[in-house]
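Build the 3D complex.
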Amino acid sequence: TTTTPSLLYLDAVSVVFDGFRALNNLSLAIDQHEMRAIIGPNGAGKTTMMDVITGKTRPTSGQASFEGGKYDLTKLDEASIAQLGIGRKFQTPTVFEMHTVEDNLRLALKADRRAVPTLFWRESRAERERVDSLLERIRLKDHRARKAAELSHGQKQWLEIGMLLAQEPKLLLVDEPAAGMTDQETADTADLLREIARTRAVVVVEHDMVFVRDLGVKVTCLHEGSVLAEGPLDQVSANERVIEVYLGR
Ligand code: ADP
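Done.
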């Protein structure tokens, strides 16, 4: 048994839209440096759960807290939650197409939630080292001087992940990172996420079961706004109720 409090804790969260329960008593705990995969059929509540964590949607009831209960996410706005160190990667990459790869990262570093605002652009040695280290991690070192517009879809996804890492989030939420990627890019993305999860927590919403298997992490299956099953993928995918919701509709 461990007494270490969870990094993220959702306790009996419900979200009701016009009488419809998008989340229904959802409880979830994510530890520091844990990577968790969230699966579930369309309409299961995955997006709504991410919206609650990032402050985009307020729960109708229940608790959502961060850093062992230090912060009540239900009382903070989106900007404050981002400041706490919760980053979110949407499915479509939003990079600055006309800027180079390294300039995209520089812009993201300037927006670092911990950075001291400076009036003039002067790249310090420390900043240059951070750009280099990010380029290395996101596998774009050889593409640093190219315009983001020239990157493949997969490379753009990595660049956006790099831009989020520039903010040093404690928790990174990622929505279907492997969608539209080649097999090689998908495998590289799994490696990248595993590396990221060595130093922070990652929550991945994913439909691609091959990718989830490759991640090799604990899986939570949502259905009708609640947790249907949780555990290793083999166990969850053998669960009769999980098979029913995936096949029986
Ligand atoms: P998932 O991401 O797992 O596909 P969602 O969280 O997007 O599921 O949606 C859960 C349910 O809540 C769906 O039935 C959806 O139609 C409904 N829903 C989501 N957002 C809203 C909203 N803003 N207003 C009304 N219903 C919504």
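Strands lie at 8-17, 20-30, 35-39, 61-66, 71-72, 86-89, 171-175, 201-205, 218-223, 226-231.
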